[in-house]
Queue: 4 jobs
Job 1
Amino acid sequence: MKEIHLNRIDLNLLVVFEVLMDTGSVSAAAKKLNKTPSAISHALSRMREQLDDPLMVNVGGKMTASPYALRLIEDVRPILRTVERAVRSIEDFDPATSFRIFRIAAPFVTSWIAGITSRIHEAAPNVGIEWEPFGPSTYKDVQDEVTDLGLHSAHVPLPGGIREEKLPPLKRYVFARDGHPALGSWSKQAWLNWPHVTVGMSHGAPESVNDRIAKIGVERRIGAQIPDFSGVAALVSGTDMLSNQVAAMLGKDIETYQLRVLEIPEPIPDFQFRFFWSERVSHTLENIWLRNIVTQAFSDLVAEAESLVADRGVIPAR
């Protein structure tokens, strides 16, 4: 690789590079940056020339990053976040006039996302939200301020440089369709006999359902494992599968799909969530504004879900 002269690197090229790495598409990057595809292609060509690396190549119709690009983006993201923070600090954050894009890593609970979006657009019509699932890089993305706010289990240690707000523990229930054959004779054996819907986020609890079942020496049938909570209610209501969840992760779907609520026949510890964000932005106006909206919407979601559970009634185990 030839020598790189920093005075030749245009910061705008790094912005384009980050969006290309996020979208994997010239056309998608152009749309997001409000530029023409030819302008994005030209910017990529300039970076390739200056860095003496292909950076991204078209493989099967999708832009695929080179090994050097994968290493480079890890250094570029925190640099861009630092520049953004420095520029934003010049002026106070005004939701009504801001065009800020916030990134939130959280479970996909439809009614919660809809509630947050509605509140944000009412106060800040030009502000956007990018939702992303929790993944192996989420904590690092929060440290680097690539992700503004995360929600996940409070039962694992946090890395340095991250602040948190732990939420009250939530009781877990079993959800089943109305008319499920197990409703008339609900017991530990019925809980084990019927297949279950599980969600990938379940890791991180103090004791997962699978952990507990292993301890009592029995085996649970997994009927389906899905990546997020938005599909749980539809699967449960349309099949004889069960699902062990906190009510908030189903939200209004409890009522929409007329789900029945049952007591878990085996003692399972409550689940505790936490919100977390970068310590460096903890006192910035925009992060405080975002946290207030998102955490209040989650509190409302929990209250509404628990109210729906109370209205439906919890079927005890025999």
Job 2
Amino acid sequence: MFIDRVRVHAKAGDGGNGSASFRREKFIPKGGPDGGDGGDGGDVILRADVHVDQLANLFFEPILKAKPGGKGSYRQRHGKSAPDLVVPVPVGTLVYRFPTPAPFDPYAEPADLIEGEEHPSDRSRAKKGLADPMPEDLVADLDQVGKEFIICHGGKGGRGNIHFKSSRNQAPRRFTEGTEGDESWFLLEMRSIAFAGLVGYPNAGKSTLLRAISRAHPKVGSYAFTTRNPQVGVVDLEDYKKTTVADIPGLIEGAHENRGLGHQFLRHVMRCSFLLMVLDMAGSEGRSPLDDLKALRNELELYNPELAERPWCIVANKMDMQEAEANLKACKKKYPGVSILPICAELGEGIPELKAFLQEKVEEEGARIAAEKALEEATASSNEAESANQGASSSTPLVY
């Protein structure tokens, strides 16, 4: 059971109460206040862990509750602060704020139907699952290994009566209670992180291609929708370099409208920097590869316009069949400026050329990231130097 979206309820630990006590020992009948402070409650923290590949652990245990802090005691004994609750999540998890669900009332009477409105039993049932979150509700993006985010802060411990003593009030009985920890609902959404993504129609040969270029072993079958969950494979390149390729389940026309579980598949493409459009160039499923490519590009653009601007290429699969050559010529004629890589994933033909092409794109992406980082560092250093010069000029005394 693959889970890539789950709703959780998080509750941080409450702070411990302070203590109101007085020192009482032999020969010291009035020793004064000695109440200790309460301990702090534990935080609820999400941490991106490379050893976690889905959100199934949170699907079966959706309540995240940290422990409260200990209470203060006599002789200025402070309560123990509770440990933080660290929850591992997959790398690439998005954290959204989720509205508090309304409590279910089994005895509530159904509202009167408006004249002309259809009965609820006659309406089409919606697909199971959670609704898509709004972009403004995003609070964290755990896209790096070890990255942490505190979704709920623990409460602060209360103060004991020793903090309220004074010359006028030498025996205070006042103390403060610990504050409550944060409590809220969140929606966690996992998005696969890979450099390249295999996008294509069902039964186009994406899983077979991933088997040919990496050590991943996705399920392969002669029927559509063999792959139901995204698979990420590691591809070994030359000079001891590596990259990752994601096998996205097959898309169909209308995927941007969530037809055929389109949104569950399309959101995993958002993390890919490069798109490999895998086409059945022989048309073995009775479809034209040019029409398939046009429909795929249209679905990506309708789902998110950013996907249409991503760099992409065409992987012409099943070139061992007779009809593939004619379709390949027509594809080259229609898309002259797009890189087209003819392969046969089942026989291993064209795989070395595909790996060399991926290595070239990986090096270009690395050079682009390095240039952006250098530009940011240069801009930051120039801003610091400018601010330092302005401070020095303002502090220089005027000579008349």
Job 3
Amino acid sequence: MTDVVLITGGGSGMGREAARRFAGRGASVALFDVNQPGMAETAAGFDTVRGWSVDITDFEAVKAAVAEVEAAFGDITRLYNCAAIMPFGRLLEQDNAIIHKQMAINYGGLVNITQAVLPGMVARGSGDFVSFASMAGWIPMLKTGGYTATKFAVRAFTETLWHENMNCGVRFACVCPPPVATPLLKQGKESDWPKMLEGERGKTIEPGDVIDAVEATLDKGKFFVYPTRDAKIGVFMRRLFPNLIWKQVHEVEGF
């Protein structure tokens, strides 16, 4: 049976990496994004990759597109929810609409694609469900509050979803990487980039390393995906010494 992979945010970055990897293995890959040129670049060289222009915040549009994917390719066997935006700024200064837009895309989009795809997986008793949180879903920082709030929501939603469906046959993963070398970083750097993410502290990893970690974690039957040792340490420190982390953040940012 052909693997059918649905990837939100497939027009660039992490979504593109996952799409081209699965297509290279012979999977049929559906991309959801509003970035049509980006989806065309992702699909280049693969006859089994097709893009759908979908506003992930529109539940009816998402459901309709999912139905089209299954009519064209068959039952969805893997879902990678990579769609996100990442503008930074102080919470009292950041545009109100931008803060709400981040939540609508980063978290609301996950809710929409989950309710459109996961019931079918659960009914069939198989599938891979992968959502992308971030280390920002564990560790808040100054200037990242709007984005961080969305990733906390993604982590809480996905963890609860996993526990509610733990024995259904679907494999769940919540990915919590440090900064990844994708175009998403550009949004942050063009807004109000924190000093905490400069230099060695902001060292990026490659998208392929994250996908490797996702596959290894799923195969081990684990839920949280930490692609680096530092990511694991960061979560440990946040849980045990939250005030110590905040002290460092204030010292580095200077306020």
Job 4
Amino acid sequence: MPTQNDHIEHCDHCQHNANFLASFLLEHSNDWSITVMFYIAVHAMEAILSNNGINCQSHQSRKNELEKLDIEGLNTALCLYKNLERKAHDSRYKNYKIYDWEVHRVYKDILQKIIIWFNSQKIGKEIQLERCSQMDDKWFQKYKAKDSECYKCH
């Protein structure tokens, strides 16, 4: 059975990955940016499960166990999580050319919403993500430099 420290450890991994993502987001390796976003969500969901006395060893068992829980807002978060899992899989195995605008949308429309929901659950430490406005600043700098990708999102 998972201990209190187990879900705190998942929160620590979640924050560690969020910090790592911020170090290269929209600058290098968009395929890996989406993959790191997925693992931020994985650790958030693991913390939710651990908080409910559940420990999973695979992606499928994690989804199965999450579907059994009755937590307000979890169904929406789980749909976002599954979508992020598909996008991470596709970015690694099907489509290595991921545009900045796609990363921005995944971050804003999926990851941020998962983490906002997770933080509302008050499990361990609150996860801090780079604000979308900070990402927008990076986009603005690229736009000013005439980066051809920027017009697709802004």
